[in-house]
Amino acid sequence: MTGDFQVPPAFVQALRQHQSYLLVSHVGLDGDHLGSMLALQQALTIMGKRVVAYLPESIPASLSRILYGLENTSAELPDEKFDAVVALECPTLGRMPKGFEPRKMAPLLLNFDHHQDNENYGDINWVLPEVAALGEMTFELIQHLDVPLDRSMATALYVAVLTDTGSFQYSRVTPATHRRLASMLQAGVATDEVSRSVYRNSTPNVLKLLGRMLNDLTVDERDGVCVAWAEITQKSLDEYSVRPEEIQFFVDELDRVEQADVVVLVREAPGGKIKASIRSRNHPINQVAAIFGGGGHSRAAGVTTDGKISEIRKALVDAVHTELTKLTKA
Ligand code: 5GP
Ligand code: MN
């Protein structure tokens, strides 16, 4: 896989031809859509457009410290109409922020994503599931808009690709990914500052909580299928005074267990929700997430649901076992 792809002319045209754009992304903030959103907002602004980036969630310091342009984003839904809404990596309308109705905000809806379960709900859909990060698609889009990449856009896109590829390690990383990264570095990304901020800047309490999670991790091996799992309760977050957005990387630490086929991190999230992150080494697990109303990529998926943490965790781990046993015996 070379990683080269075409940018649809209709998508580029739709971003050239109008005056005002509202950018929105899925709930559960991550570096890929945040970086892509900031870079696209900056590019469209340079083109003379009016752009609001709607970001109703709090942004972790690990990202806010190194990204430019956050002061131009809006935590409130603007009380005005736009020419177009651009949805960045929202596979379904249901993944958009609560109460957000794109059709009420603009007559045109552009759907821009790299999730395979995307439902193509837009007027124009540009969805490439084989691409590792939306940041790569945003990079190509900005080239097609003829906006020169400056340091701030390049940094935002670098953060997007860095965080969505597990630091360029996942299977969807291609030669083209690295060529795009080279252009970003050329534009002046401070790679040392970025990775320090994103991965090596945790408070001692976050690390102590990580220690507790690793101490309590469980390896559940049945019929040759190995699942490593851990739970993080609201009580332990409170005990260590740690905010939910500070532990997004914990699943990557769990993903270091030697023999695991799949790792599952289940945590109590704000609003009484249970949030699970699932990572798989060799088999698709997004179908398992879908059973619980979640979704995601083939090897990285998630679930947000109601219930008791241990019950959800048990059901999820059992479902992973059932699915993988089926797949490995097939
Ligand atoms: P993470 O575990 O890092 O939150 O998410 C991994 C992948 O699963 C991402 O592509 C994310 O969009 C997706 N994902 C996470 N949580 C949910 C969820 O509750 N519902 C759906 N449909 N996808 C999710
Ligand atoms: Mn992504």
Strand content: 15-25%
**Helix amount:** 25-40%
What string, H for helix and E for strand, traces the elements in order? HEHEHEEHEEHHHHHEEHHEEHEEH
Spans of 5+ residues with little confidence (pLDDT < 50)?
A: none
Globally, the shape reads globular
**Which CATH C-level class of the largest domain is it?**
Alpha Beta
How many domains, as an integer? 2
Descriptive key words:
inorganic pyrophosphatase (n-terminal core), six-stranded mixed β-sheet, alpha/beta, binds manganese (II) ion, 330 residues, Diaminopimelate Epimerase, Chain A, domain 1, 13 helices, 2 domains, 39% helix, globular, 12 strands, binds guanosine-5'-monophosphate, six-stranded parallel β-sheet, 20% strand
Furnish the topology, listing elements before pairings.
Layout: H1 9-17, E1 20-25, H2 31-46, E2 50-54, H3 61-64, E3 73-74, E4 84-88, H4 102-105, E5 108-113, E6 124-127, H5 134-144, H6 151-164, H7 175-186, H8 191-199, H9 204-216, E7 218-222, E8 225-232, H10 234-239, H11 250-254, E9 262-269, E10 273-280, H12 286-291, E11 295-296, E12 300-305, H13 309-329
Parallel strand pairs: 1-2, 1-4, 2-3, 4-5, 5-6, 8-9
Antiparallel strand pairs: 7-8, 9-10, 10-12, 11-12
Helix pairs in contact: 2-5, 2-6, 5-6, 6-7
Bound molecules: guanosine-5'-monophosphate and manganese (II) ion (MN).
Guanosine-5'-monophosphate (5GP) is lined by residues 26, 28, 95, 115, 251, 277, 294-297, 300-304.
